[in-house]
């Protein structure tokens, strides 16, 4: 059992580490780490290569999280389909794929903000809180024009949704609650530079079209 857990967590981390933003940008002749904010995530790729590529990266990074929590635990353990949020292995795989994106081994542990990958994990594990968080994200970005602020507020909304709407957020789903809090902390910490720029008034805004 321990070996299965370790194998599953390593696989989840390695999948999370796949730097789609970096790879696609390099294919276009651009090192996205040296352009814009220097981040390999969808937002910066969208700024550097255009919104179409930003959307592609967002979907690919989201799918990393979704596929890992859906598939990996089934293949490495006796868990039956569909995977559920009250299983510790599923939650740990979700955490590892998210941390893989944020700290990818392939790029010297310098990765993205992990927003899209986190949403992919929670789309499967907590779809209703994610739907609420997506609405909060849209509203926040529409009002502030800051994608980074929307991402942070949306992540906090997932925590609120899981605790407020969950069947047993501090009982059978305590692992899901813990995951949402850990991810929210990670994403806010990863956005510290954005927070400083927002306060200074230098953060890049989304332009309405």
Report on the structure:
The structure is a single chain. The chain is globular and about 45 Å long. The protein has helices at about 1-15, 20-25, 40-50, 50-75, 90-100, 115-125, 125-145, 145-165, 175-190, 190-200. With about 210 residues, it is mainly alpha-helical. α4 packs antiparallel against α5 (about 90-100) and α6 packs antiparallel against α9 (about 175-190).
Please tell me how large the radius of gyration is: 17 Å
Q: Counting H and I runs of at least 4 residues, what is the number of helices? A: 10
The poorly predicted ranges are none
Strand content: under 5%
Order of helices and strands: HHHHHHHHHH
- State the shape: globular
Structural class, from helix and strand content? mainly alpha
Q: Whole-number average pLDDT?
A: 94
Described by strand count, sense and barrel closure, the largest sheet is: none
Distance between the termini: 53 Å
What fraction, in percent, of the residue positions are helical?
Answer: 55-70%
Count of discrete structural domains? 1
Number of strands: 0
Helix-strand blueprint:
Layout: H1 2-16, H2 20-27, H3 42-49, H4 51-76, H5 88-102, H6 115-125, H7 127-144, H8 147-165, H9 174-190, H10 192-200
Helix pairs in contact: 1-4, 1-5, 3-4, 4-5, 4-6, 5-6, 5-9, 6-7, 6-9, 7-8, 8-9
Can you describe this structure in just a few lines?
By secondary structure, the protein is mainly α. It has helices at 2-16, 20-27, 42-49, 51-76, 88-102, 115-125, 127-144, 147-165, 174-190, 192-200. The protein has ten helices and no strands.
């Amino acid at each position: 059992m321990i070996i299965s857990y370790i194998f599953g967590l390593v696989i989840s981390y390695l999948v999370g580490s796949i730097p789609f933003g970096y790879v696609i940008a390099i294919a276009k002749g651009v090192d996205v780490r040296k352009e814009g904010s220097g981040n390999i995530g969808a937002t910066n790729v969208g700024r550097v290569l255009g919104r179409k590529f930003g959307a592609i990266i967002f979907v690919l990074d989201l799918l990393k999280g979704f596929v890992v929590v859906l598939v990996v635990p089934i293949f490495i353990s006796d868990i039956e389909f569909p995977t559920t949020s009250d299983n510790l292995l599923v939650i740990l795989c979700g955490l590892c794929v998210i941390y893989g994106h944020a700290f990818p081994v392939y790029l010297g542990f310098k990765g993205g903000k992990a927003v899209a990958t986190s949403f992919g994990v929670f789309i499967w594990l907590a779809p209703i809180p994610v739907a609420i968080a997506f609405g909060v994200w849209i509203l926040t970005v529409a009002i502030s024009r800051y994608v980074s602020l929307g991402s942070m507020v949306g992540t906090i909304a997932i925590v609120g949704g899981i605790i407020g709407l969950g069947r047993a957020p501090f009982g059978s789903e305590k692992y899901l609650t813990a995951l949402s809090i850990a991810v929210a902390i990670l994403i806010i910490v990863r956005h510290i530079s954005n927070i400083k720029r927002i306060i200074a008034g230098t953060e890049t805004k989304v332009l309405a079209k």
